[in-house]
Every structure is written in C-alpha cells, then in structure tokens.
Amino acid sequence: MGRTDNWGEEPLKRAKHLIRFLASYNNSQKSSLSAEWRNEDSDRPELDIRTTLLNLVLLLYPERITSKYDPKAEKEKLEVQNTINRLKELKIVRENSTPGEKSKGIRYFTFVLWHKIHLEENRTQMELAWRNRSKSGKSKVEKTPQTNNQQMYETPKRELEPRLEEIVKLYLAASFNQDAFAELDQAGETDPDRRTKLKQVFIDLDVKTRKGSIPRDFKLENLPLSARNDTDDIPF
Fold it and tell me: How far does CA 88 lie from the centroid of its chain?
C-alpha cells in the first residue's frame, strides 16, 4: 500500500481530478474502464468502477502519457493508488477486488459520492472531508507531547498498611471539619474565599512527622489498641 501521510494541496488536487473524471465518465472506452451508478436517487449514490490502474492513468492524463510503455506511467500508477488509499481513509472509496483479480491487475472500486448530476458537489464535499481529516491529524500531533508530559509526571499509587490507614483517618478527622474550609497553606493562598474545600489528602510516607503537627485534641486513647504501638515515634 502506498503512503498516505501527505494530505497537502497537490494530493488534494489529484483527488479532485479523479473524482471529477469518474463522475462524468460516459463509458466511452468501456473495455478500459467500466462505470455503473447505483442508488442514484439517494443522498450518497454509488459509482462502481472496473479498470486497471494503468488504463485509469492513460484515461486521466492523455496529454502527458500517450502509451502504456511511457516511463511516466509507473510513477502515475503509484500516485493514483495513493490517491485511492486516501479516499479509502475518508470512506469515499471501497475496494471489492479479489486477490486473484489484483494479481491480474484488475481492480473493482465503489466510489460513495454525493450527486450524479451536480458533479461539482462531489468535489466540494470531498474537499470538506479532506480538509477536516487534515485538521484532525494536526490536532492529534499537537496533543501528543502534552500526553507524554502527563505520563512523565504520573506517580504510582501506594497502599497504606491497614493500621497506618486507621491512624491517618483518625488524625484527619480530628484536624478538619467536613463542613468547613481546610485551613491548609494552598500554594501560599491567604484569602480564605479563594481556598478550595478539602477533597483529597496526599501523604508522603517518607517524610518524618514534624513536632507540633499533631492536633491539640488528638488523644492516644482514641486509637484502637492495635494501632497504639505504631504511634511510638510520633512526638506528642
């Protein structure tokens, strides 16, 4: 499969030329390219194409490629295939060729268009889909570095031992009232009206307890017996 990473103006120009040619084709050279419309009255009529890439190139660019032996024919075949691949990504083209047919160079495509009579409508709608795809691709590229940065700063969660968790819960219950704003230094914020209500507490398990950090009404007898031994190192 050819490359489809280029969604610039030149590939768009090729795609518009292909759509216009096929939508207006009248089977004048049916042995080289056959085109049949289906669901003509629907909002997305379908155009079935049977051809080979070489025949399609000769019909698309008769002024530039006059013979199937022209050295430029192979290059144009690749460009046409790339154009079709891009239209496949936009859900404008489906391919129905079997592996056996492909090995003989025969290709069956279905172009899902917008209008059989108003041909310019097909090119207009295709261009809109093309440009929306280009914008979407750019947005994903721009967001990728931010996502990587977020992953870099993620900290793995650590589970507390059951007894330590019980101590922490009792400590927090004695320190803060659920109906009041937490009196914490929030990045130096001194205005109480701009402080946020306490939702989560993050504890660094590697930091030693600081003297004077225990609540005034924190009592050892409030702890269960199983947890009291874990408070020996806390400076009351």
Answer: 17
233: tokens are 């190192």
Secondary structure element (H or E) that encloses residue 21, with its range: helix 9-24
Report d(CA 118, CA 185) in Å as an integer.
68
- Contact of 119 with 40, CB cutoff 8 Å: no
- In angstroms and rounded to an integer, the radius of gyration of the C-alpha atoms of the chain is 35
Averaged pLDDT score across all residues of the chain: 78
Asked if 96 and 72 touch (Cβ cutoff 8 Å), the reply is: no
Q: Bridge-partner residues for 103, per DSSP?
A: none
Q: Quick one: residue 70, left, alpha or beta (phi over 0 = left, psi -120 to 50 = alpha)?
A: beta
pTM of this structure: 0.57
**Given the DSSP bridges, would you call strands 46-52 and 106-112 parallel, antiparallel or unpaired?**
antiparallel
User: What is the per-residue pLDDT for 181?
Assistant: 47
Can you name the residues that pair with 19 across neighbouring β-strands? none
What order do you get walking across the sheet with 93-95 strand by strand? Answer: 33-38, 46-52, 106-112, 93-95
Residue for token digits 């030693």? 208
At residue 205, the 3 state secondary structure works out as coil
Paired tokens of 15: 């795609």
Q: What is the number of other CB atoms lying within 10 angstroms of the CB of residue 119?
A: 17
CA distance 81 to 11: 11
